[in-house]
Each structure stands twice: as structure tokens, then as C-alpha cells.
Design brief:
The chain is mainly beta. It is built from no helices and 40 strands. The strands form 9 sheets. Strands 2-39-38-36-35 form a 5-stranded antiparallel β-sheet, with no helix packed on it. Strands 3, 4, 5, 6 and 7 form a 5-stranded antiparallel β-sheet that branches. Strands 8, 9, 10, 11 and 12 form a 5-stranded antiparallel β-sheet that branches.
Length: about 550
């Protein structure tokens, strides 16, 4: 059973002097550093955001030297770096890998250090794409463009999602794909698949033109363009996805859609357009998608006014309202207006989301709530940590299983536009990780980027699983930065070595047994709660330590 958070009142805020970085920050790699083979040097692009899962830091980067090419790399907080794949490597099919960073698709990683990553190949006059699973010592093909899809048609790597695929600890991979040469043409040319490691064998989770999982209507993709967005995957092999639906009992009155979960054999309906929403109203549409180890799915719901008016969590049996327009925000005094629709759900059932307050005020904030207990982690338009000016608006955010929330934000500091990266800890308050203008490596930070879910109000449908974001369960945060001298790099920040200081800033915070390092009812990973161990695995899936 997941540990339920208990609300307590705290007044906590970390103070880091203006222009200084805490001792808890470490640069892992910088422009000019040697690649692991010591034959080339890194030449970073800040647009390639690193991911962090367990102790594994993952990133793509071009490099210069003997060859001016690119690679996918894995590192760890201790500063070790390993090459997972690089230009010139041979794919399992015998084709040569020629590029690894220009597709713009992020890799994902599991707790064993296996990555799911894309690559551009060369085969005679053609340049097919491929999706692979592997680490620095092995590489397995998931599929290459042109491989046969289940039923009919040929697989083609989808290049307009943010994530290439998601991988779990069993090494299973879930992905969306375009299909070529199908019998139905544009009526069946998009799909979602699950791969369990069996060569050239895929389980079809959803396909455009097929019946909806509940039998009412046919699937037509996730977006109005007819393509499926990236699905989500948990350790049980369950795949969560959002789909538009045509020719259903609702089609004449609504643009029909649904939120579903499937293991390939048993589709479960989480929510559907025209159904009553908890707390009042009827669903007219959905945005955002996040799934936890219990198979619960969080999402934003449109209640008929053209905007997202609620945040919800469901498991196929119970649907719970987390927050809704018109309700009081944590601490009271104002009410929720609209929501960005992007969400991040952790294994305790808490959901992080971006929202605006009081429609006529236009202010925004980031909130974490499980539907009963809520806290406001950041309010835009108010003061940030001392010396860091005013929060101006949400960037990207990620939530871990300790209910810590890392996020980027625009800042106004002394009339200047800056950008910052912060972490909210429910037991200790708010900490500044880094911001533009900070001194670092003999220069100053001019730009930074963090891999999280977009917090922009009315953002696009987006899912970003734990296996790809920049925050792990140990409270470590990894991010990309650019310096005034044009060097770029990746740094990691550790909340456990940060001395939180008390200031007069009221916060609603979570207290749980795992937060102090005490064992939970299932497993213990470092000093924080981890994923619940499944009945078929002795060790905790997140850190591989035995259940306590």
C-alpha cells in the first residue's frame, strides 16, 4: 500500500547567496572534456536536455576531434561517463549509425542503466531511423524503419514526439510509431506498441482505425493530426495512452476521446468523453498523461469551456478529483481558474500540476496534491528565494516519489529577465539550484534547461516518464547549462547535501515515514521512498535493494 502523505505546516526556505552556487552542485561534463574513449571532446548543445533515473545520467551530444560526430552517453553522479552509442558504430542489422543527436528525440533509461534511444542509420542511398535498447556493452534492435508491423504495414520511427520510447526495468519498451504501406492508407497508419525483447515481435496496444478498447467507436490517434503521442509504461508492463475516437455513440455531440491503460490483452478505460466528472461537470476532452506503479493514471479534464478545468486520477475502477476550477487553492484566499493540463503523478498518488488563479488576476502557480492534501510549491508573481527576484512563470517541472518538485521559471531580478531552477521539498521548503547570472567554472551561467513536463497554461498533450526527466527519488537534479564564454555542460545538484535554512515563508508540507529514511512497507532506496516492489520481484525495481 502506498504511504499517504500527512500535511503539516512548516516555514522553510533555503537561502543561497545571490550569484553563488551551493556546494551541493557538481559539473559532470563540460565543453572540451574528453569523451570516454579519449579520442574526441564534447561539444554540447543546450537544447539536448539530460535525464536522470536512479544513479544514471543520460544525454546526447555532438563531439569534435578525430571525428566531428555525435553520441549517446550514460554517466553517474560520481562523474564517470560511458559511451552507449556513437557515430560509426554498427547496428545489430549491420547498418552503420551515422547520427544520434539531430532527431530531437530524448532517450530514456531504466534503473539497470539500459537505454531506449533513437539513431539515424545509413543503408546504401537511404537513411533509415532505428530504435535500440542497450548500454555501453550491448545493443539490441527494437525496430528499424521498414520492419514489418503487426497485421500489415511497415514501422517508421515517429520523429515529432518529445521522447523516442520509454523503457522499464525488465527492459521492455513502449513506443508510438508511424506506419507505411498499410492496407488502410491514412486510416490505419499510426499505432502504439509494446516490445518485451523478443526479436521482431510487438504487442499492439492501439492502432488508428481499430476499435476503441471499450468497443465504442474507432481510434483516430491522440492529436487532431491523427498521430499517437508518446505512451507511458510501468514496471508491470502496463501501457497508458490517450486517444481520439471516431464513429462512437458520442461522435455526433462531442469530439470523442478517452484515457486508457492496457497490458496488450486487457484494455481498461480510465475516463471517456461525455462521462460525468468527479465533483461535477462532464468530460469534453483530456490533456496530459502520467501513470504510476499501481496503474493509476493522472490527466487534465476539459469540462466544456474550451480549457482544462480539472485535474483527475483514475485506475479503471475509481476516478478521483484532484483539483477543479472554482475551488480554493492551498492556503485559501483565491480559487483555481484554469490548468495547463500537463501532470506528473508519483507512486503515493500525489499529482503535480501548473494552474492559474482567479481568472481576473491572471496569476499562476505550481501545486502538488493527492486530492485531499495539497500544497502550493511556487506562486508566480511573488518573491523567489532571497536575491532571486520575482517568479514570473512556469517552465518545466518533475515530481519524485518523495513529493519533491523540481522546476524552471522565468525570473525578474532588479528589472532584468533571468531564468532559474528550483526544488521544492515538502519537509524543508524551497531551494534555489541555479539561475542565470550565477558564477560557474570561471564564467557565468547565461542559459539553463531542465528535462521536465511543460508547465505552460494550455500546453500540448505531453507525457514525460520518470525514466527521462531530470529528477530522481534521491532528490538529485540534473540540468544543462550554457556559460558566457560559450561553453556548455551538464551539472547535478544534490538536495541531501543542502543545508535548508528556516525563513518566514509559510508552506504546506508532507511528512511521511520514508522522508526520514525509515523503511516503508515495501522497500527502501537511499533516504527516500522508492517504487513499490512487485510480487514477482524480490528487489525494489527502482534501486534493486531487497524489500524490507
Amino acid at each position: 500500500m502506498a504511504v499517504r502523505p500527512v500535511l503539516v505546516l512548516l516555514a522553510c526556505l533555503l537561502f543561497v547567496p545571490q550569484g553563488a552556487l551551493a556546494d551541493s552542485l557538481r559539473v559532470l561534463v563540460l565543453t572540451g572534456d574528453d569523451t570516454p574513449d579519449e579520442q574526441n571532446t564534447f561539444n554540447f548543445q543546450i537544447s539536448v536536455r539530460p535525464g536522470l533515473y536512479g544513479e544514471h545520467v543520460i544525454f546526447a551530444s555532438p563531439y569534435t576531434g578525430i571525428a566531428n560526430d555525435s553520441g549517446i552517453f550514460r554517466g553517474n553522479p560520481a562523474g564517470q561517463r560511458f559511451t552507449v552509442a556513437q557515430t560509426g558504430d554498427t547496428a545489430p542489422s549491420g547498418k552503420s549509425i551515422i547520427d544520434l543527436d539531430t532527431l530531437g528525440l530524448l532517450p530514456s533509461v531504466n534503473s539497470l542503466g539500459q537505454l531506449a534511444y533513437p539513431a539515424i542509420l545509413v543503408s546504401g542511398p537511404s537513411f533509415p531511423n532505428g530504435l535500440f535498447r542497450g548500454n555501453e556493452s550491448e545493443r539490441t534492435k527494437v525496430f528499424e524503419d521498414g520492419d514489418a508491423a503487426p497485421g500489415n504495414g511497415d514501422l517508421s520511427l515517429r520523429s515529432n514526439n518529445e521522447l523516442a520510447a520509454v523503457i522499464n526495468d525488465a527492459g521492455d519498451v513502449a513506443f508510438s510509431a508511424s506506419l507505411l504501406n498499410t492496407t488502410g492508407g491514412s486510416d490505419d497508419d499510426e499505432a502504439i506498441y509494446y516490445w518485451d525483447g523478443t526479436p521482431d515481435t510487438f504487442t499492439q496496444i492501439a492502432r488508428k482505425g481499430n476499435a476503441a478498447p471499450d468497443g465504442d467507436g474507432t481510434l483516430s490517434g491522440t492529436r487532431t493530426s491523427g498521430v499517437f503521442a508518446q505512451p507511458v509504461l510501468n514496471e508491470a508492463g502496463e501501457v497508458g495512452f490517450h486517444a481520439l475516437i471516431e464513429d462512437s455513440s458520442n461522435s455526433s455531440s462531442f469530439t470523442d476521446a478517452g484515457i486508457f491503460r492496457s497490458d496488450g490483452s486487457l484494455p481498461i478505460r480510465i475516463a471517456r468523453v461525455s462521462e460525468p466528472a468527479p465533483g461535477g461537470g462532464v468530460f469534453y476532452g483530456f490533456s496530459g498523461l502520467s501513470m504510476n506503479e499501481a496503474g493509476s493514471v493522472a490527466f487534465g479534464g476539459n469540462l466544456g469551456f474550451g480549457s482544462i478545468q480539472g485535474i483527475y486520477r483514475g485506475n479503471g475502477t475509481t476516478l478521483t478529483k484532484i483539483a477543479k476550477s472554482g475551488e480554493s487553492i492551498p492556503g485559501g484566499g483565491e480559487t483555481y481558474s484554469f490548468f495547463a493540463g500537463s501532470v506528473d503523478l508519483n507512486d503515493t498518488g500525489a499529482v503535480a500540476f501548473a494552474t492559474s488563479f482567479d481568472i481576473f488576476q491572471g496569476t499562476e502557480g505550481l501545486v502538488v496534491s493527492d486530492g485531499t492534501n495539497s500544497f502550493l510549491t511556487a506562486r508566480f508573481g511573488t518573491s523567489a528565494t532571497p536575491g532571486d527576484g520575482i517568479f514570473k512563470g512556469p517552465g518545466r517541472f518533475a515530481l519524485n516519489n518523495a513529493s519533491q518538485l523540481a522546476f524552471t521559471t522565468a525570473l525578474e531580478v532588479g528589472g532584468n529577465a533571468e531564468e532559474g531552477l528550483f526544488l521544492f521539498d515538502p519537509a524543508n521548503g524551497l531551494a534555489r539550484i541555479a539561475r542565470t547570472g550565477d558564477a560557474l567554472k570561471g564564467s557565468t551561467i547565461t542559459d539553463l534547461d531542465f528535462n521536465g513536463i511543460s508547465g505552460q497554461i494550455e500546453g500540448d498533450i505531453l507525457s514525460l516518464p520518470d525514466q527521462a526527466d531530470g529528477l530522481n527519488d534521491a532528490g538529485q537534479v540534473v540540468f544543462a547549462f550554457e556559460l558566457a564564454d560559450d561553453r556548455r555542460g551538464i551539472a547535478i545538484w544534490d538536495s541531501t547535501s543542502t543545508a535548508f535554512a528556516t525563513e518566514s515563508r509559510l508552506r504546506l508540507a508532507v511528512s511521511s515515514p520514508c522522508k526520514t529514511g525509515a523503511p516503508s512497507s515495501t522497500c527502501r532506496c537511499r533516504s527516500t521512498c522508492s517504487r513499490k516492489a512487485t510480487s514477482t520481484r524480490t528487489p525494489c525495481p527502482r534501486c534493486r535493494r531487497p524489500k524490507t
